[in-house]
Amino acid sequence: MPGRAGDSADAGADVAAEVASIIRLDNPQIDLRLVSLGDGGADLAKEFSAIAAERAADGPAAVVVPLVTGPHPRVLRAVRDAVTQSETGVRVTEPLGPHPLLAEALHVRLAEAGLARADRMRLFNVTSPVDGIIVATAGGDEAARGADATAVLLAARLTLPVVPAALDGVPSVRDAAERLRKIGANRLAMVPYVIGPEADRERITTAAEAIGAGCAAPLGAHEAVARMVCVRYGSAFGGFDGFDDLSE
What we know:
Layout: E1 2-3, H1 9-26, E2 35-36, H2 42-54, E3 62-64, H3 73-86, E4 90-92, H4 100-112, E5 132-137, H5 140-146, H6 148-158, E6 162-166, H7 173-182, E7 188-192, H8 201-210, E8 214-215, H9 223-235
Helix pairs in contact: 1-9, 2-3, 4-6, 4-9
């Protein structure tokens, strides 16, 4: 379960460790290992080789679940390079999103920051604190395009306009803010569609402040992230008992 180390490497490592703890608590049968991509994937390649030496050759040595919410070229390239260097049989899953669970988790983060209504059942008599949401992700232009489905899911939950943006690509957070303001949404909020290892917290804060938007916390170690890791892991084997109903 790799993530990319950056300026906030320590915080990112803490998030990854917390996600792993949640998974291990309910799934002690999974041999779960955390590997940082801060060195470009060299440690991951070594881990693959070590695991392959311990396992029979009649199946994959490991399943890699990238700890990212959507397309992230640098992370995925580092994982693929590590697989090639190790010359071992490894399956790499899709990113964790898009998925309704993650859209729900974004809603929770917004509500925790006082930027969204927490209960969809009482929308008819509660005034929304904002009138436009930006889902900000990391991973460049491709990541922003990949966040579009999650933005649609979140918009359906909040009955508000929601648009995606990239913290490190286009459309930028400023582009997204201008798009929302053109349709009359002036009270803006930004919710980081990132887990932790793949994004700089300072960049997130600066981007929100630059457009005068309130900012929710990143997904971090939300339970939905841990559950999605298990879903992706199970998908590598055609299903995983106990997790088939997570999207309900």
